[in-house]
Design a protein that fits this description.
By secondary structure, the chain is of the alpha/beta class. Helices cover 42% and strands 15% of the residues.
Length: 316
Amino acid sequence: MVRHLPPFLLATLALADTISAFTTPNHHGSISSTTTRSRQRRSSSSTALSVRRMPIMMPTQEPMVPYRAPGSGYDQFIGLQSRQLRDRKLWIARYIDEEASNSIISSLLYLQSESDKEDIKLYLNIPGGQLRPALAIYDALAELKADGCKIATTNIALCAGMGALIAGAGTKGMRYSLPNARYLLQKTGMDQVFRGQATDIALEVKNIKKWNEKIAEEISKVTGQTTDRIDQDLKRDFYLSSEEAVRYGLIDEVLLPMPNKRQPPTEVVDLGSFSSGDENKFQGEKPPPGQQQQQAQQNAGMMKTTDDDEPPVGKA
């Protein structure tokens, strides 16, 4: 009696014979399979395709720009922020904490020591800040204005929380904003989780309410709004666009791009008037009689002049 093997068993045996037919001994005398090599080649090729080339980065995070010091005969590379600080431009584009407050106040005092008559330009992009460090910057700006130094503030993106108060702390008439910049006025809270007894928590809450009243008074000084309206507006997050901030009194002007000054193609372009010492000569107009005779003499002299490149013509 002959038994037939199942189809899957026949396929397994055929695959085993195929693999054994392609096995060869290597130089160490052991048997290696070509299928294993092909799998290794495929894995190595997939690994090579997944490798990315990192972008070329500058050696430092801050871009370096050339600068020539007054009286020097050569240029040197300094940081971009340091270069702009020499032009009395200070960028504040970070969260306001103790470290940021110390750096900003020291830069402001340095600019005041250099010259207390020239303007200081602040470019702001402040996502928020802690209460006491931000109030230290606000008080420093008030002190500089009291000493006669003008402060120009420009919101380039977002001034939230205490950043909005710093944006409004500039000199009146010099508080600017870009068209798509925004402001966020809000009450302050705890900087971190406060733990303790019920009496200590009550004292901390009382202190926060006192500081919120103080902030409302400072916003009232900056904007000209009443404290009652400010308390009503700050019950929730109070967002303002650049135009709304002007109407609210937080800033003075929105910086808009100048329109393109081009002559319409349908109109005739005026070339303007030509001014000179002599009388103007235009094509198609006859000059006065005196100028006609002078011009005729000049033309006759030009006709009599021979060309140097041609030989003289002999008479027969």
